[in-house]
Every structure is written in structure tokens, then in C-alpha cells.
Amino acid sequence: MKRDYDYVVVGAGSAGCVLANRLSENGKYSVCLLEAGPPDRYVWIHIPIGYGKTMFHKVYNWGFYTDPDPNMLGRRLYWPRGRTLGGSSSINGLIYIRGQSADYDRWAAQGNAGWSWQDCLPYFKRLEHNDLGPGATRGTDGPLWATSIPTRNELVEAFIGAANKLGVPRVDDFNTGHQEGVGYYQLTTHNGKRCSTAVAYLKPARHRPNLHVETDAQATKVLFKGTRATGVQYVKHGQQHEVSARQEVILSAGALQSPQLLQLSGVGPGALLQKFGIPVVKDAPGVGENLQDHLQIRLIYEVSKPITTNDQLNSLWGQARIGMQWLVSRSGPLAVGINQGGLFCRALPDEAATPDIQFHFGTLSADQAGGSVHPFSGCTYSVCQLRPESRGTVRIQSTDPLTPPSMQPNYLSADLDRRTAVAGVKFARRVAQADPMRALMKREHRPGHEVQSDDEILHFCREYGATIFHPSGTAKMGPAQDPMAVVDERLRVRGVAGLRVVDCSIMPTLVSGNTNVPVVMVAEKASDMILADAVATREPLAA
């Protein structure tokens, strides 16, 4: 491979694949995309239900664990992250959600010009190929598919009907910016297969002579000349390599590894860097702070009829039937994953102007996401608070780039988060007991009928709560007067030149829902900014 490029992008995940495509599209600039993991050739990546096979995979999943969280009974929580082309978009639950218009208006109100809902909407439309057809907020020609679930499911229909009885309207499109309602999710699938960013964006661009994709390439350090980023050091098969960037280095390694790489490279809290003997390029106290995540609380019910995915997976005949269904027509349970039903509503209606909780309703049940299904007919009500106030940290604990950083989420450390978690569990129970769902719910397996008081419910949340895979905010975007802002509104790292962060790290506050599609939008918008800034030979030092 050549050793110098216009752009070096670290991380071929949800954002990196988008950047690789858009920055190489006009043929004027050369792009090197570095991915620590292997190519996405594993068959279960591409079968939608297959994320159960990748959840704990030693090769395609980083398999991180948090520090013991004192708010979660001292538990270390498992945090899966994608380690292959497509990143977490290759192993996630495929849910197609943008968030609420108020999320982006909030970003803009915090001093991030150009990030309001109306500013972001053109990029949401540009990335999208929505099978619902044209609409005021929909795109129909983009590379990333938003596919509706074609077959109605008896259990999901009962879930929708029960929510209707509680005053939640049925909707077909959760992505207009309004969001409140209940219905079937759309999925990032196409023709019954996963539509990751590697499939949607990278695959069509791989033939370009100005794009080089390097897999099994673990970035270890951003290289600087003074305060200007000039390239990236990486390790491949035990050998150290360097690649230089004439224009910019762009970090798209995710909310855990982008701040880790910044800190290892001398950009981060000065005291932390000095503790490990790392020369300080830029004392940036916000790097690794502001960590946010959605905590999912999973209620499990035994179903009174054998109509669940458990029943199909627990039978050899059932497995064979759904396997043939996918092979012959790319349809059935293998083509739609696990969580089909979605619900956005207000658990604390006196405090929330917009939905504050989200449900992922699954037609199967297991002790943990990606685990073996229960021997009984089961379903799962997974509820999470949309805008948590708890904040955590990501900090290096070694100068070895292969040593995972310390990850402390501090779940449920904020009063609002605790009250919303309890209210969310109570609302889930109300749905389970409302007609027509009531007749299908044989018993509550977890938390169980004996858990009733607010204190008991909160203890259940601490004991069984888990990530829903949306860590964000650790290199947040913010105005110059915010000392904790890591990047400016053009996603340039403040205080240095030639370096940007483009991934979930930059979110000042977590969006109300799944993060994959918002990150694709961020990368689409960032690509326009980067190309516009390329008119200057050298990018000026960010304020």
C-alpha cells in the first residue's frame, strides 16, 4: 500500500464506511480506511437474526466490560461493540430510528450551529431508501435501506392493541421527528439481509482506485507535528506501520475507542496523560467525559400459546422451517431479527414534553440479549429511558492500545433516571395486563409478581439492567466557551489542526432512540463539511 493519503479514517464502522465512500466519491482525494477487525465475511453477520451469533463472538466483537458500577450492585456490564467492516452496524439489532426533532434542536440550542432538526433532515433523507415511499421527511434514493416488516405477527399485534388501549396511537413511521406511538419498527435490511454501512456504503466504493481499505489494522496513535495531526500509527499482524494524511485524520472508532486513541495520542485531560507519561499535545479535559448510554430493563413473560420465536428455535422442525423460509424467500424470523414491536411514550407525563421511554418488544425471551432462549413460549418487553441524565467516563488505564480503557457508565446515578426506570417497568406491566395482550400473558417470569414496591422495582433494575448498546458523548461537540467541548460544530478537535472526530462520541446529549442511523447522518453531514474545508491547503487551528 502507499503510505500517504489525503484522508486517513480510523474505524470502518457506522461512520467510517460513510466517510470512505463520500470522501472518495469525486475522485479528487485519496482515502485510507483503517479497520482493526477482519472483513465482514462471517455468514451470520448478514442474516438479520444472526446478531445472536455475533453478540459474544471473539473475533467480530470487542466484547468490552465496564468497570464495576456501584449504582448497579457493583456489576461489570458487558458492552458488545462491532469489530469488522461495518462496525456495530454489522452486529446490531437493525432498528431504524432517527430520534426526535427536539434532540437536534437541543444540540443547536447548546451552541452547535447547523445541527438543528431542519439542518439535519436533508442528510437523514440523503442517506435513506425508505420502502414507505415519498414523504415530507423521508428519503427514497439513499444507500441505507429502511425496510418495513411485511408480515403481521399475532403477538406484536396484541402488543400494539394493548398500547392503544392505554392511549398510545398506532403509527407506521417513527422517524418524522414526532416519534410518539406504537407499531412495527423499520429495519436496516434489504431483501432479507442486513444492510450495514459496509454493505450500503463501502461495498459500492471498494473498486475506486483512490480508496484503500486496510483490515486487521489496529490504530495505536495519532501522529502529530506540533499541534497538527499528520498521520496514524497502527499495528497489523504484529508489525508497526505508519500512514500519513495530507489533509486530515478522522477518528470514527466509536465512543469508547475514539477517546481512548485521543488520550493515547496526547489529546485529553492533562493530569491523566501525565500519569501515564504521555506527552501532552493538547490538554482537553472533556475527552472521555460525558459518557451516556441507554439502560435497558427487560421484563420477560411466558406466553400462553406456542406463537413465539422460542417455540420455533426450540424445535428442530421449527429451526428447519424458518431456515428454509429464509433460504427460499429471504423471509420469516431469520429475516427480521428479534425486536419487531416499537413503542415510544411518556412514563412521566407531568415532566416530559415528548416521549421519555422506548420499548423494543421481542417475540422471544432469554436471560440476556443474545443468550439461549428459554424452554417456554416467551416474549420480552425491553424498556429504556431515552434521555438519561447520568454521566460516566472513558479513561485509559494503560499506554498499551490493546488494553481496553476504563469504562464507568454510572447508570442510574441521577434521580430522574431512577424514577423513569421504575415508571417504565410499571408501564410495561400495564401493557402486559391490557387487552388483548392480557389473554396471551401466562405469567411474569421476570421480575416476578413478588416485586411490587418502587424500591423493589429499582433493585430489579440495578440487578438486571443492561446496555442497549448506545454509548455516546465522550468527545462532545460544543461552543468555544464550553471547556468540556472536544470538537467544534464542524467536528474539528479544538486546539489542534487536521483532526476530526466523526462518530457517537460527538453527541453532546444522547438522541432519543437507537444511535446507528443518527451516526450515519452525522457522517453524511461531516463529509460535506470536510470536502468544503478542503479548499484550504491547510486547515486553520480550531479555536
TrEMBL record:
SUPFAM superfamilies xref list: FAD-linked reductases, C-terminal domain, FAD/NAD(P)-binding domain
InterPro entries (UniProt xref): FAD/NAD-bd_sf, GMC_OxRdtase, GMC_OxRdtase_N, GMC_OxRtase_C
MF terms in GO: flavin adenine dinucleotide binding; oxidoreductase activity, acting on CH-OH group of donors
PROSITE patterns named among the record's database cross-references: GMC_OXRED_1, GMC_OXRED_2, PROKAR_LIPOPROTEIN
Keywords: FAD, Flavoprotein
Pfam families: GMC_oxred_C, GMC_oxred_N
Signal peptide: none
Domain Glucose-methanol-choline oxidoreductase N-terminal: 82-105, 254-268
Key word Flavoprotein present: yes
Domain of life: Bacteria
Cofactor: FAD
Family according to the record: Belongs to the GMC oxidoreductase family.
PANTHER family linked: CHOLINE DEHYDROGENASE, MITOCHONDRIAL, GLUCOSE-METHANOL-CHOLINE GMC OXIDOREDUCTASE
Name of this protein: Choline dehydrogenase
Species this protein is from: Pandoraea thiooxydans
Classification lineage: Bacteria, Pseudomonadati, Pseudomonadota, Betaproteobacteria, Burkholderiales
